[in-house]
Design brief:
Blueprint: E1 2-7, H1 13-22, E2 26-32, H2 36-45, E3 50-52, H3 55-59, E4 66-69, H4 73-85, E5 89-93, H5 100-112, E6 117-120, H6 127-138, E7 144-154, H7 163-179, E8 185-191, E9 201-207, E10 213-219, E11 221-233, E12 237-241, E13 249-258, H8 267-274, E14 275-283, H9 292-306, H10 314-332, E15 338-339
Parallel strand pairs: 1-2, 1-4, 2-3, 4-5, 5-6, 7-10
Antiparallel strand pairs: 7-11, 8-9, 8-15, 9-10, 11-12, 12-13, 13-14
Helix pairs in contact: 1-9, 4-5, 5-10, 6-7, 7-10
Length: 340
């Protein structure tokens, strides 16, 4: 069994604690938080685990194999670096770090010591995204044309990060996993309506070497909650609606076909000849309903046991942080195109 210590018992920490406690390959050995009341409450739920207010107690334990970090992003680099230097495997919450320099250093440190470094890009492990990946890899969609994502709601306003750093890691990690290609440039724009210096609405657009394009809309100031992604291919298209309770993924046999024409003397007739529309069936694939964090914890433990790179390793985390960093740079410069 792999011994696990979790640092952070706030919003997301208890979910990770529960999943590792329920995994037969793991032994929950430590729980850590600076909030004594919160720590005691979680400690009562998992009495077999030791509790500590100082994370250095975990790192000093020679029998502790791995550390899970679920704390504010500003603390990720320090906690992860200390854990790696102490010889511990690390699973860290999104976003990975506050900048790509920190992310790159952590990746190199872990690789140099033969340790597993994994980022919890939770949505990559959902049944919906994993099924979409299978469809994309099968070639059923044809050539990928665009990726368009909307993630908006009313709140939750943050004080340490803006809407991009809060919401974008989800969709950027989904795109990174599904599309499996690197953007060459990025533009972004955002506005601050509540607190100066903290954008609550943002639009991000990624450009690629070919005609593929990706667009994202993030908003804390929306009257409705929307979690919807469109992935268009030359043959079929996918709509992924994470709020939909039963039919989260729909595959549409819809598209357009462009035909060559000999003459364009009559523009209207030429357009009708050039483009024809195709409408077919709508397919709703069956999805794995297992909680995503169950797969996250299993992936982390299996990567450690088999000494392999996890699906969302530190390099994947670095790619997402680089996009976040570039988006912030573009916003700060009024929407300037940032070469990647």
């Amino acid at each position: 069994m792999i011994t696990i210590g979790v640092i952070g018992c706030g919003y997301w920490g208890p979910n990770l604690i529960r999943n590792f406690a329920e995994n037969e390959r793991a032994q929950l050995r430590w729980i850590c938080d600076t909030d004594e009341r919160r720590l005691n409450a979680i400690g009562r739920r998992f009495p077999a685990a030791r509790t500590a207010a100082d994370y250095r107690q975990l790192l000093a334990d020679p029998e502790l194999a791995a550390v899970v970090i679920a704390t504010p992003v500003a603390t990720h680099y320090r906690f992860a670096k200390d854990a790696i230097l102490a010889g511990k495997h690390v699973l860290i919450e999104k976003p990975f770090t506050t900048n790509s320099r920190e992310a790159r250093e952590l990746v190199e440190l872990a690789e140099g010591r033969g340790l597993t470094l994994m980022v919890d890009h939770t949505f990559v492990y959902t049944g919906a995204v994993r099924r979409i990946k299978e469809i994309v890899e099968s070639g059923e969609l044809g050539e990928l044309l665009y990726f368009d994502s909307v993630r908006i709601n009313l709140g939750l306003f943050q004080r340490d990060i803006n809407v991009v750093w809060d919401l974008a890691p989800h969709d950027l990690s989904i795109m990174d996993y599904l599309v499996a290609r690197d953007a060459v440039a990025l533009t972004a724009t955002g506005s601050c309506h509540v607190e100066a210096g903290i954008e609550n609405i943002a639009y991000v657009m990624l450009r690629f070497a070919d005609s593929f394009i990706a667009h994202f809309h993030f908003n804390w100031l929306s009257p409705v909650k929307i979690r919807r992604t469109l992935i268009a291919g030359s043959r079929k298209m996918i709509v992924y609606d994470d709020i939909e309770p039963t039919e989260k993924v729909r595959v549409y046999d819809k598209g357009v076909t462009a035909n060559r024409i000999e003459s364009d003397s009559d523009k209207e007739a030429a357009y009708q000849t050039l483009v024809s529309y195709r409408t077919g069936d709508v397919w709703v694939p069956k999805l794995d309903s297992t909680e995503a964090l169950t797969h996250v914890s299993a992936e982390f433990l299996d990567a450690i046991a088999n000494k392999r790179a996890p699906l969302t390793d530190g390099v994947a985390g670095l790619r997402v942080v680089r996009l976040l960093e570039a988006a912030q740079e573009s916003i700060d410069q009024g929407g300037k195109l940032i070469e990647l």
